[in-house]
Design a protein that fits this description.
The complex is a heterotrimer of chains A (316), B (290) and C (235). Chain A is mostly helical. Helix content of chain A is 76%, strand content 3%. Classes of the chains: A mainly alpha (316), B mainly alpha (290), C alpha/beta (235).
Chain lengths: 316, 290, 235
């Protein structure tokens, strides 16, 4: 349906334009807010690959995110002068390493057991990071300075809030386009077939294990990327981000926004963060009570999420 | 690296005591899973709530036993209400949906506890203080009492399932839900009742654990995670298995705590889970994998 | 007493029953014949509330029961003996019986009377009272499944392929059981692939093909003239 396709891209361009202009017109707080939505959105998208397209719920995405963050921190603290690209490299490598580990289990375990195992993994890493104080800074985490945006040997410019936002926007947009390409490709179709009916996919002849491994690696890499971006934006890494709560929030973004749509989870992230902002004014730190109730109600009554009704359209 | 024998001895008993408390939590979880395929993410939070209700009861009445009873009853009723409203509509849907739903409930319960009782921990005073002589060591009476009480409750559950009138209903429904209905057994009610029983047992654990570890809001996740591990290692739906696994895991952690810090000892149980999933996914304590 | 009227049932997207109409009067034995997969079991499951019809009516003793939960139907007097027996394998024989016996309205004397009667009718079950259901042979499990249904004191039993997987000499026993039940006034809707047994036991027979009732006649007629049976079942 060519028509909905054009509508999709028009919508995309409009939103992209808005996001480009955002840092120029918004006050500091909201500018930061939007950048954060982008980063969490990327994390949510990466999770959607598993939840929405392959049908594996991961409760441990915080491990990829956290590892991306901590490895980037490691790069920025050990390699002098601090280099953006090396930080990216370290972060992605770290996430990829863990992703391989998790991928191994993904192929051996069914649904529920996989979900529980991912949860356990993220907790293992949390404990390691929390207690290995010499290397990870333990409870206090690691603080470092922001690297410049540079191409070695050519030019270098320090990040301003606007430039950082545009950098993040660029990375997230490219990631989105890449992920979209992947989900639309034959590979993506097979993933969805696996989610719909795994035994049948296997019977048709697909090597389900291989597809799952690639899906987990892909998911882990982009989640790690989000972690690197977060580290660069905030200039610190803390164990809180490896804690289960982050994984839980990612799942919330996915469900609220609509799994299997790629843009849904981003919308879900925005929705959740806005709800949090809004409810915090009235409920202070208890915002999670109404938000949690909304989430549970959505699981029961609106499992397709905010954008789920448009799932078919969005995937064309 | 020689570890004194008495330390090993103490840790063995500690392991058994903690194991019994964990068994109380895990048997409820495995019962619920066995009968309605629900992985109750909020189970640990029921433990936490039980602890708080117990603490509140003690604050007003000063009676530990009353607190134990009150917590179990209140949380059992609450559990029944929860299941009837949020989980019953989900029967027949994708099992992962129930994980998500119970996850959402878990969030709400945790924050509610903070809102209701504040962020600080509560103390529950043990009903009997003092130590007894274990060889040449001093060991607290209360810990022993805890293990005995937990064992008694689990024993009562077993007897109820085996010989009670409704025990047959529960066992039949667990084995074949459809046929049980065709025999006139009110399966939806049985589901709610079992959830309530599981919740009540979890709450009792919370009160028993109170004097040992304090009542705080974040024990929820900890218990849920441990209970999951136990249920998987013991075989999902296998009552006897989860009891053995609880003791096994707790002993492992207790011994590990002799070498590393308690925070790190937890990794041992995680590793046990992973090894089980890799090599004996139906459960370590299940006769033969079919 | 039991009426299905133009019932359509789907499993997901598969249209299994295409407008089935069947009637069983009080105390009757009615047979339902047909090849594999024509929808005989689905018909029984629709009556038992295990599958919901998308169209049509299911009436029992004058009231509509479509959409009612199975455990209510059991209390109304409809008992189901499924195709694979579905004995509670980990429960003992006695406990299996108790799933039907333990209900309100059955006092101690009545319990004892019912148990005595069932053990008299099925002595092999008396011997194996405390054995686990899963350890019984196929024939014994079939006895248990029927005995269990009888504990509900049903007005009608939905009997799904009782002779499947049984040795030939047990077929006679099944026929005898059906006769005894019928003498006590229990109606039976018998789904079978064993034609001779069905013709012997039933007063009327429906023949199904591809989800529809294609033929309906008194059993006597079908016994006398075999051409109809040949036509639909190829026997």
């Amino acid at each position: 349906m060519r028509r909905s396709n054009t509508a999709y891209w028009i919508g995309f361009c409009v939103i992209l334009a808005l996001l480009i202009v955002a840092p120029l017109v918004l006050p500091e707080f909201w500018r930061r807010f939007v950048t954060e939505i982008l980063i969490w959105g990327l994390l949510a998208m990466s999770s959607d690959i598993l939840i929405g397209y392959t049908g594996m719920i991961s409760f441990g995405h915080s491990v990829f995110f956290g590892l991306g963050m901590y490895c980037a921190a490691a790069a920025l603290l050990t390699v002098k002068p601090p280099n953006l690209w090396i930080a990216l490299l370290y972060g992605l490598a770290g996430a990829a390493a863990v992703a391989t580990f998790v991928a191994f289990f993904a192929t051996r375990l069914r649904e529920i057991y996989f979900s529980i195992t991912t949860l356990v993994f993220s907790q293992i890493f949390y404990v390691i990071i929390f207690t290995w104080t010499e290397v990870t800074g333990g409870e206090n985490g690691l603080a470092f300075s922001q690297p410049p945006l540079s191409i070695p040997g050519l030019w270098s410019v320090r990040f301003t809030p606007e430039k950082l936002h545009w950098f993040v926007l660029a990375v997230v947009t490219i990631s989105f386009l890449v992920l979209r390409r992947v989900t639309q490709s034959p590979f993506g179709m097979v993933l969805q077939a696996i989610r719909e009916n795994e035994p049948r996919a296997r019977a048709i002849g697909y090597s389900v294990e291989r597809y799952k491994i690639v899906a987990v690696m892909l998911s882990g890499l982009f989640a790690g990327l989000a972690g690197v971006l977060y580290a660069i934006q905030n200039k610190f890494a803390a164990p809180d981000f490896v804690f289960f709560v982050v994984s839980g929030e990612v799942v919330i973004f996915n469900v609220m926004g609509g799994v299997g749509t790629l843009v849904g989870p981003v919308a879900g992230a925005a929705f959740f963060l806005l709800l949090r902002e809004g409810f915090s004014r009235y409920f202070t730190e208890y915002y999670l009570i109404p938000v949690g109730i909304i989430f549970t109600a959505m699981v029961i009554f609106m499992p397709q999420g905010l954008l789920g009704f448009a799932k078919r359209r969005l995937n064309q | 690296m020689a570890i004194p024998l008495e330390q090993i001895l103490i840790q063995t008993i500690n392991g058994i005591v903690n194991g019994m408390i964990l068994a109380l939590v895990a048997s409820g979880l495995t019962l619920i899973f066995g009968i309605m395929d629900v992985v109750n993410f909020a189970h640990g939070d029921l433990v936490m709530l039980g602890g708080f209700v117990g603490a509140a009861t003690i604050a007003t009445t000063g009676n530990f036993w009353l607190a134990l009873l009150a917590a179990a009853v209140v949380i059992a009723v609450f559990g029944a209400a929860l299941q009837a409203t949020t989980l019953r509509p989900l029967i027949g849907r994708d099992p992962l949906t129930t994980i998500l739903a119970t996850f959402g409930i878990s969030l709400v319960l945790q924050k509610y506890a903070i809102w209701q009782w504040g962020p600080s921990a509560r103390r529950i005073q043990e009903p009997i203080t003092g130590n007894f002589n274990l060889f040449y060591l001093q060991y607290p009476w209360y810990r022993l009492l805890t293990a005995l009480l937990a064992a008694a409750i689990i024993g009562a559950l077993y007897l109820f399932l085996r010989y009670g009138k409704y025990g047959i209903w529960i066992r039949a429904t667990t084995q074949d839900r459809v046929m049980a209905q065709a025999m006139g057994i009110p399966v939806p009610l049985v589901h709610t009742a079992v959830f309530a029983i599981g919740a009540g047992m979890a709450a009792a654990s919370g009160v028993l654990f109170g004097p040992l570890g304090g009542v705080t809001q974040n024990i929820g996740l900890d218990f849920t995670l441990r209970a999951f591990i136990v249920v998987v290692v013991g075989g999902m739906g296998n009552l006897g298995g989860s009891i053995l696994a609880s003791i096994f895991i707790s002993l492992l952690e207790a011994y590990a705590a002799l070498i590393v810090s308690p925070a790190q000892a937890v990794i041992v149980s995680f590793v046990a889970l992973i090894l089980t999933l890799l090599f004996r996914p139906t459960g370590l304590f299940v006769p033969t994998p079919k | 007493m039991l009426t299905l009227d133009n019932v359509h049932t789907y499993y997901g997207k598969s249209h299994i029953l295409h407008g089935v109409s069947i009637e069983v009067k009080s105390g009757e034995v009615v047979g339902l014949l047909g090849r594999n997969g024509v929808g005989k079991s689905t018909t029984l499951k629709t009556v038992m509330g295990l599958v919901r019809p998308s169209e049509g009516h299911v009436m029992f003793e004058g009231r509509s029961i479509a959409g009612m939960a199975p455990h209510h139907l059991a209390h109304l007097g409809i008992a189901w003996v499924p195709e694979d027996r579905r004995i509670f394998r980990l429960l003992s024989v006695m406990e299996n019986l108790r799933t039907g016996l333990d209900r309100s309205g059955v006092d101690e004397t009545k319990r004892k009377a019912m148990l005595d009667k069932v053990y008299a009718s099925f002595p092999v079950l008396a011997d194996r009272q405390s054995q686990a259901g899963g350890t019984l042979s196929g024939g014994e499990q079939q006895m248990l499944a029927i005995a269990r249904a009888m504990m509900l004191e049903p007005k009608i039993i939905l009997l799904d392929e009782p002779t499947e997987g049984l040795m030939p000499r047990m077929v006679g026993q099944i026929l005898e059981i059906i006769r005894v039940l019928n003498r006590e006034g229990v109606a039976i809707l018998l789904v079978e692939q064993n034609v001779p047994l069905t013709l012997e036991a039933s007063s009327r027979v429906y023949i199904m093909e591809k989800g529809v009732v294609k033929h309906h006649a008194p059993a006597a007629d079908l016994r006398a003239d075999h051409t109809v049976i040949h036509q639909y079942l190829g026997i």
